[in-house]
Amino acid sequence: MSEFWNQKYARDDYFYGEQPNDFLHSQIFRLPTGARVLVVGDGEGRNGVWLAEQGFTVTTVDGSHVGCDKSRALAAQRKVSLEIVCADLLTWDWPVGAFDAVVSVFLHFSPDERKVAHARIQAALVHGGWLIIEQFHPNQLNGYTSGGPKAVDMLTTMGDLADDFNAIDWWLLAEGTTRLEEGPGHSGLGYVSHGVGRRQ
């Protein structure tokens, strides 16, 4: 998969744009000042760099070395610092109980791999730490052309998120349509599942 993403990101512009995800932007008010934030599957760094601009202590992880290089370039351009880790999330030595928040935006796996990754995301949070997550819903395949995997088993419902994150007290958990304006990679109406909650 890393080579797939290396090819996606091997372009002069940013495939998903340089601005943060709208759902993330709408929920960031919940995080305490200076929070330690882990951004998983951050691609070319748009969300991690923006969070660093807001004054958070950010670690961003992605499996694409091209994406990580573009994250570094974007951080230098915006004059912010963050820890950028280039690693396969399924084999990375995840910190446990280390972050005040974890952000996961359009990070998709097969069902078995998803459960492993989501368990590690949950474990990476301190008790009371925030999870902010958005993924494409299976209904995305019903005529929506704004991006995402084409395999239905890689898409998630609100119920899947609730099942996977069994130690999260959800403050918001929903599914439905949203308008995406995230570079050429995500453009137009999309059908998503998203949520925000705290680790119990």
From TrEMBL:
Residues 37-129 form the Methyltransferase domain. Keywords: Methyltransferase, Transferase. The keyword Methyltransferase applies. This is Methyltransferase type 11. Coiled coil: none annotated. CDD domains: AdoMet_MTases. GO terms for biological process: methylation. It comes from the Bacteria. InterPro entries: Methyltransf_25, SAM-dependent_MTases_sf. It comes from Halothiobacillus neapolitanus (strain ATCC 23641 / DSM 15147 / CIP 104769 / NCIMB 8539 / c2) (Thiobacillus neapolitanus). One of its GO terms (molecular function) is methyltransferase activity. It holds the Pfam family Methyltransf_25. Gene3D superfamilies: Vaccinia Virus protein VP39.
